């Protein structure tokens, strides 16, 4: 019994063939291809002999999508690197201000300790006097 919505093998085999041929072409001639489908189709005509018009169009389309995807991923990676570099510069600017504020708070806490110590001594001396 066959499943009704199962992908037919000839379609799956065709996609694999298109990817395989596209990768073979890109390995040798990647610098010649760009984002434009029509130009990629012309380049494919120059470097290979593909008699089937539909196969040629499918391969050119796959190569075009592949190139566009690579460019899009590269732009995203560069934007991420730029964002991380800007965060680092902001952190470097904030660190000197933070270190100054911690120094001030340490001085303040030292003064507070000095002030509280005599109060405790006074309470002890008053307790001794009452005994």
What labels describe this entry?
single chain, about 130 residues, mainly alpha, Diphtheria Toxin Repressor, domain 2
**Strand-residue fraction?**
under 5%
Shape: elongated
Tell me the number of strands: 0
Please indicate the count of domains. 1
Write down the CATH topology: Diphtheria Toxin Repressor, domain 2
Quick one: CATH class? Mainly Alpha
Question: Could you please describe the fold and organization of this structure?
Answer:
Helices cover 84% and strands 0% of the residues. With 131 residues, the protein is mainly alpha-helical. α1 packs across α3 (53-130) and α2 (37-47) crosses α3 (53-130). The protein is elongated and about 70 Å long. The protein starts with 8 loop residues before the first helix and ends with a helix.
Q: Helices and strands in order, then pairings?
A:
Blueprint: H1 9-29, H2 37-47, H3 53-130
Helix pairs in contact: 1-3, 2-3
How would you briefly describe this protein structure?
By secondary structure, the chain is mainly α. The chain has 3 helices and no strands.
